[in-house]
Write a structure and sequence with these properties.
By secondary structure, this protein is mainly α. The protein has one domain. 57% of the residues lie in helices and 6% in strands. The chain has seven helices and two strands. It has a two-stranded antiparallel ribbon.
Length: 164
């Protein structure tokens, strides 16, 4: 069976052998960066919790269910807005010199960052920390949610030589 149509190349992250420095230490840096992000998210959650407590008291608990929903949006907004922002990295990722890219060799837009964030938290809820094991055996150090979302994380300083 022959193909008569023009084939479209499948986009994928740069080769881990040709661009070794892009992926060196990424899995461990991502884990450490997430702990930093947890502290930052915890700071925002503490401020929101303080404000939400007073709103709950002032409304005799009527707005409490709505405030719980907004409280759950804190980590979602944190990751989505920072991953699609100008640095394409959360605060923890920036601290460890990481950035997120799309497999199209560009940067993730807001929709792709939102998908990646939802998949990240869903996989964390289902597997706890087992998803990190996947990254240890993947040559590009991608986790399952990265693969599904079409993203990958690289060392920022090493990323200057990758194809654009």
């Amino acid at each position: 069976m022959t193909s008569t149509g023009a084939s479209t190349p499948t986009a994928e992250a740069p080769d881990p052998i040709a661009y070794y420095e892009l992926y060196r230490g990424v899995a461990w840096k991502r884990a450490a960066a997430y702990f930093v992000d947890l502290v930052v998210i915890g700071f925002f959650a503490a401020i929101a919790g303080f404000i939400f407590f007073f709103i709950t008291v002032m409304t005799f608990g009527l707005l409490h269910p709505l405030l719980i929903f907004f409280f759950c949006l804190i980590p979602f907004c944190y990751h989505t807005l920072l991953l699609s922002g100008p640095h394409h990295a959360t605060i923890g990722m920036r601290l460890f010199g990481l950035e997120m890219r799309s497999i199209t060799l560009g940067y993730p837009d807001t929709a792709q960052a939102a998908i990646q964030t939802v998949l990240f938290y869903a996989s964390m809820a289902l597997t706890v920390w087992l998803l990190i094991l996947w990254a240890l055996f993947d040559p590009r150090r991608r986790m399952l949610h990265d693969i599904v979302a079409g993203t990958y994380v690289i060392n920022r300083r090493a990323g200057l030589g990758i194809p654009a």
